[in-house]
Amino acid sequence: MPVAEDIAFALQQQGAFYKAHQWSLRVESFGKAHEETKALPEEIRGQEILSRFHSLYQEPLAALVEEAVRVFAGIVSKLPGTSLKERTGIVEQHVKDCIVKPNTRKGPVERWLMQSSGWTGDPAALIGVYDEKVESSWVAPKWLTPPPPNKAEKHNRKWFLQIGRERVPVKNEFALRYNKKLDGVPEGLATRHLILGLSTTLESRILHVLDLNLKKMAATLLPDQTLEPQNHEGSRIERVGQASKADGLSDRLRQGKQCMQMVEEMKKVQRMYLDRGFTFEEIKTQVKRRCTFQNLPFDS
To answer: Is 0.85 topped by the overall pTM?
Structure first.
């Protein structure tokens, strides 16, 4: 079986795994949200469900994207004859198809809200909502959506509008027009705004995680020079140059890691002297032992 075919099969199998995993994650998250909030009073239940949307659904999903980027990058790194840009594109597309797209659309978010808030109805309707094949008529409970704006009220022949804790006087024409506009607001508008806000926030968060981790895995996605075809001298010179750059990057990474280790050792020395009262000779012995173990330079 050719190498490329093996890789395509591995991508397919891993993609199927993440499609199943993200589905299980979503089901588990709305189940937990419902169980943990169903006994709460309505005054706080709505906010608690929205809080769990982020903690039980959005954050685990972000962690899943991070893991998927790492796994897909490991598979694609074995693909010969492709550039860094092409490999990055392959990983990005697979993560979007398996995790991002099935979760950040309006349908999945609406279904999550319906089931976490205890909606009871025809289960078949949930499929249409998820696939967005039908326009849902679901209206979220009032405790789940923000309260509607206050209408203008008349006191002693004058109109007032409650804004926060203040009662602001308004003109008669404005009050009548404002109240008429509120009367014309569709019943499900607050629900649609809630779903749109959550899906937009979720998509922004997940795409940010995806982009961040693709950049983090750039070194892993660099083409493997040993798998490049040996065609002509020009290509060979180009590959040697790329290999030198990759080696330089590896050297900088190793040196940077050593610097971080040395900084940590200096902090430990300070704590041993100030907090624990070690003598200079005792500190020197312990530091020398750790530096030898971690292959760090030690100047006595």
So the answer is: no
